[in-house]
């Protein structure tokens, strides 16, 4: 599905248009995934619903990714618009397109995490979590900073995992 603005910008969920070099370049320098390997960026996109934001000539200038069961819940990740294209309402429009996607309608709950964009998302109708005491996390935040740790991340299939027999 592709949405087009009057000025020629496009949002698309077409995976074939994604510029993984551009997405990886941005995400690997972001505060939320510093050093993330390119193969992880590609696997994350493959396991979710990625959306690209494109200028009229087709170059990718933004991204968002949603992980969802497409029935009850969605988690929004990795949202960005390159600085040179900010201030034009593109972030709001990207979010409007994501939220309007037919596969993401009727969901009971959406979730995102952000360190610095609370006001942006609040303007779009998001609320700060009214019950943070209900949420839990397993967070390996430093995983991408040390590539050797990628092979040593906890494997939940080993000792302590439920017996699958």
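^ structure tokens above, recovered residues below v
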């Amino acid at each position: 599905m592709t949405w087009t603005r009057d000025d020629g910008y496009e949002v698309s969920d077409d995976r074939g248009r994604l510029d993984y070099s551009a997405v990886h370049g941005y995400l690997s320098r972001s505060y939320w995934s510093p050093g993330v390997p390119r193969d992880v960026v590609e696997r994350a996109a493959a396991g979710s619903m990625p959306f690209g934001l494109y200028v009229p000539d087709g170059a990718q200038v933004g991204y968002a990714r949603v992980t969802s069961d497409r029935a009850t819940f969605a988690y929004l990740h990795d949202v960005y618009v390159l600085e040179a294209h900010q201030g034009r309402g593109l972030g709001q429009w990207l979010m409007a397109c994501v939220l309007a996607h037919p596969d993401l309608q009727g969901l009971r709950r959406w979730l995102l995490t952000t360190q610095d964009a609370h006001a942006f998302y609040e303007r779009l109708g998001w609320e700060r979590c009214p019950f943070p005491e209900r949420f839990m996390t397993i967070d390996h935040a430093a995983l991408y900073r040390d590539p050797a740790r990628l092979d040593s991340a906890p494997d939940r299939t080993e000792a302590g995992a439920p017996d699958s027999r």
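The chain has a mean pLDDT of 89.
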